[in-house]
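Q: Sequence in, structure out?
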Amino acid sequence: MSRFRWVEASDGRLTSSTHQWQPNFRGRVLFDSEARYSVHFNANSGSHFVSGWNNSGGGIGEFAGDFNIRQVFLAAEPVRGLEFQIGGLYPVRGENTEISTYDNDAYLVGERVTFRRAEGALSQVAATLGHIGDYRTPNVFRRLDAMGDVNYGQVLVGARLGSLTSVSADSTREDGRDILHEGVTVRTPPSVALLRSVKLEAYQRASDVTGQGFALSGDLRFTPRFTATAGLVHVDRHFLIPGYISPNADRYERGTRFYSMGAYRLSRDWSIGWFHGEAFNVDYVIPNEHRWEVLVTFNPTATLKEKRIF
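A: Exactly. Output:
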């Protein structure tokens, strides 16, 4: 991926006018023909917990070439629908997104057990126990020794309400803080041409410095190639990890804002897109009152699979 990012803080400072690049590799190696036992990995750019991009040297900031394996975990599914994972994991979000939980580049180490059902009201139950921290240490092999220092726990439940509605809720213990998340996604029938789904997500921080927030968004499909999302977000001013920054996506961080983003698929492998966010009614300094991005993405996965390279 490649993007140009322009960001202005609420005190008028220009915090970014920068070209960035992002290599991203995800993979799974199977140990058996039924795909019940495997090792997963994710390697990408960025220098810390909410950072997944490198500066190219064009604009503000010097060239950066950070590239780390952020996640490596073993997965076992001895019984269909029951999976065990151990190692460097990604957060489980349910119907919530990186707006109200953790940035898509976030990481932790630990163990997880997940039960999934393809039919019925209950879709999944996931329980995670491990360590969250080392926020400036993206390399998973430098964090695995922290697995014994348990400071993170989560129980998440997902369910289906009919064929078009999915819900989830979780209780998370994060380094001494208790946080609740809830999310609901309502998809529209195929007969609805433009609006494809509506999502409402929320969180409540129930201990330490309390607070709450929400996001309401809608997914739009203008054509099969042109899709977009628009929404309204509120993240409270104390949504911070002590000694670090906001753990959610840096596009949103804290504050109240409107946003839109979308993509146009130029071909099977190439697409071009944008992100725009505008904060309002915020009475404290935030680093991203105004934000624009233009992105180009190259994803050759489908072509590689067709040529049986993967």
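Residues 301-306 form the longest helix (6 residues).
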